[in-house]
Amino acid sequence: MESENQTLVTEFLILGLTDDPQLQPVLFLLFLVIYFLTVLGNVTIVVVTCLDSRLRTPMYFFLSNLSFLDVCYTSVTVPRMLLNLLSQFKTISYSACISQLYFFIVFAGTECFLLTAMAYDRYLAVCKPLRYPVLMDNRRLLLLAAAAWGTGIFNATSHISFTVRLVFCGPNEIDHFFCDIRELLKLACSSTRDNQLEIFLVGGTLRITSFCLTLGSYILIIITILKIHSAESRRKTFSTCASHLTVVVLYYGTLNFVYGRQTTGNALDVSKTMSVMFSVVIPMLNPLIYTLRNQQVKGAIGNFWTTRCCLLKPPLSAG
Fold first, then answer.
1. Per the domain annotation, does 309 fall within a domain?
2. Which position among 54, 111, 114, 255 has the lowest Cβ density within 10 Å, counted as fewest Cβ atoms?
């Protein structure tokens, strides 16, 4: 129980990526461009997969979910970071900080299990191609998507239910560019033992479970591909999984690097840089990764923008 003369913290100071006034405008322009490209690329994929009948398959349903998720995911942190880069007052209220943390965990957790659902979809497509239309019907498709979102919400609600019990009465400087859970716990005046245990048991279990399920799917996929006699067939089969596998490696690699180790001294600066990677840069790269080798998506996006440009052109005057 805190003493009577302790003042509870009502706002936090976000220190951000740098305090160099000359570097801040450069970072503002850089992250503004990244955010614009992220929203443009991911919204385009969502719209195209909804409008193009050729892309109404389970793989593209999950891809549109991932793109929508990435827009939400990056919007939790980047607008506030852009505002702080231009402002001298880098404060965030307690309620806004908790809200940012909640939605960040929702979207991060959902992305983990959405990538797992996508890996399972690729497993069925490669390992059980004849039964794929039956096994991946609309009902299972919606159940997998709902399970991914439900798990993300459960994970975030569990974290926040423990976080709001903490007392903040001392330092209020968060050495990060958003309200990161670990940096927030460092500022608590009350014991964080239960929080640390919850993070380890709930967050760690969900993250490891999703990773193991994804890894297991790809092990089975690789075993199946190696059994294919034709080198050309092996290449074509693997190419259907290559984009998703690239995203999985990038996302889990940076996520585990950030949250799977202690952050003190120089390690904190590296952690913040890697946090930028998985929460800001990777959502921008995902549309590029999925369209780079996918002729169907590239063709659909090309047709979409060609149609939009034609509609915007003024009609030619007669005569």
1. no
2. 54
